[in-house]
Design goal:
Layout: H1 46-58, E1 63-70, E2 73-83, E3 88-89, E4 96-97, H2 102-115, H3 125-128, H4 141-145, H5 158-166, H6 174-182, H7 198-212, H8 216-228, E5 234-235, E6 249-250, E7 253-254, H9 264-267, E8 269-271, H10 273-284, H11 291-297, E9 301-304, E10 307-309, E11 314-318, E12 321-330, E13 333-339, E14 345-351, H12 358-373
């Protein structure tokens, strides 16, 4: 089911696995399609940020963590509960499932492989995964990365979503997820339109493994986590989140225990606000990709007025300028990460529920805008 880019359309709960918004919480306030207005370089005022956070928790969200960066100044704020049952307060360093932010990490690995000359963005799916995807000889790596492949989004299969939530410990294999997606007809001919597809990113993970010969988890660790010292970030394959984490709530129930293999390369990662901020800042400052690959990543296709999608990352307009961003929506958790092209302005917002009332959604929109624009 399509969703408006401002995130306000709300399908029924079972359809909300892994970023069901076309831009993945692209606009829990992030997509303000308005005239660009210069904003002060100073950090968001503490009282404004605190009030916006308070409005969100008063509206029913269990808790939230916000990271705000302006130049060399960073502020992290937490409010509410990480665990409603024990009333344990949220801390700024608590770990969250970050859902589809995983896609930017997966895209970075694929683009690094392209920079090393080990694959081409114009390679077809059939070149690396023969026989896996019907019509794979007409779908390129680039189209998978920018969601123009036309592959049916496997999380739109109602039975899959219900199965993932009713048996939350069940393990899923990547090829099983691809088979579910390709059992449905393509949404459109490759390259002719744009539509968000988790299936495409599962295929990208399999391509990265076929090219490199190592598991995707190992590649993420050696190529991104270790070089950037992302010590609280992991590509999970077990239902239980390790370390100190925020419990996630879905329609009021704790769904923290959830097998992330159902999301794999499209959404299995767990991280903190600080690590997420460090990753996007490093990426946009050219620490992870060579200039040619960075140009490829930031070459975009249109989605809606004011929003375009590149290779694993989106570009949107806000009231204080253009931002590069991605977000995540996985049962129990919402995340949004916005970063300016130079990495000096940044906001990461994490909430430990993905089923918000309209009032809470409006409060989240205001919080995200306040965090990024001040």
């Amino acid at each position: 089911m399509a969703r408006a880019p401002d995130g306000r359309h709300r399908p029924r709960p079972y359809r909300r696995l892994m970023s069901r918004r076309p831009l993945i919480v692209l606009a829990a306030g992030a997509l303000c399609v308005t005239a660009l207005v210069a904003a002060p370089a100073a950090p968001a005022r503490a009282d404004n940020l605190d009030r916006a956070l308070a409005r969100l928790t008063h509206a029913g969200a269990p808790g939230a963590v916000v990271l705000v960066r302006r130049g060399a100044h960073t502020r992290r704020v937490a409010r509410g509960y990480a665990d409603r049952a024990t009333r344990r307060p949220m801390r700024a360093g608590d770990r969250f499932r970050i859902g589809s932010l995983t896609k930017t990490f997966t895209a970075t690995v694929v683009l690094q492989l392209a920079g090393e000359g080990r694959l081409s963005l114009d390679d077809t799916v059939e070149r690396w995964l023969p026989g896996l995807v019907p019509g794979g000889e007409r779908i390129t790596v680039r189209q998978l990365l920018n969601h123009t492949s036309g592959l049916f989004n496997y999380t739109d299969d109602e039975q899959v979503l219900e199965g993932m939530l009713s048996d939350r410990r069940r393990a899923w294999s990547p090829r099983e997820l691809v088979a579910i997606g390709t059992a449905h007809p393509p949404t459109f001919a490759p390259g002719t339109r744009w539509a968000y597809s988790n299936t495409g990113y599962i295929v990208l993970g399999l391509i990265a493994e076929a090219v490199d010969g190592r598991p995707l988890a190992t590649q993420l660790e050696t190529r991104i986590f270790t070089p950037l010292k992302l010590r609280h970030t992991s590509f999970d394959s077990e239902p239980q989140i390790a370390g100190r984490y925020a419990h996630g709530y879905f329609v009021g129930r704790d769904v923290s225990v959830l097998n992330p293999t159902g999301a794999w390369a499209a959404g299995a990662m767990v991280s903190t606000a600080a690590d997420v901020g460090r990753f996007y800042r490093a990426l946009l400052r050219g620490r992870l990709l060579r200039p040619e690959e960075m140009r490829a990543m930031t070459t975009t296709v249109p989605i809606v007025p004011g929003a375009r999608f590149g290779l694993g990352i989106a570009r949107t307009r806000t009231a204080c300028g253009t931002t590069w961003m991605h977000g995540g929506d996985i049962p129990g958790y919402l995340t949004s990460a916005q970063t300016s092209a130079d990495g000096r302005r940044q906001a990461v917002v994490m909430v430990n529920t993905d089923t918000l009332t309209p009032r809470a959604q409006r409060a989240l929109d205001r919080l995200t805008t306040t965090a990024y624009c001040g």
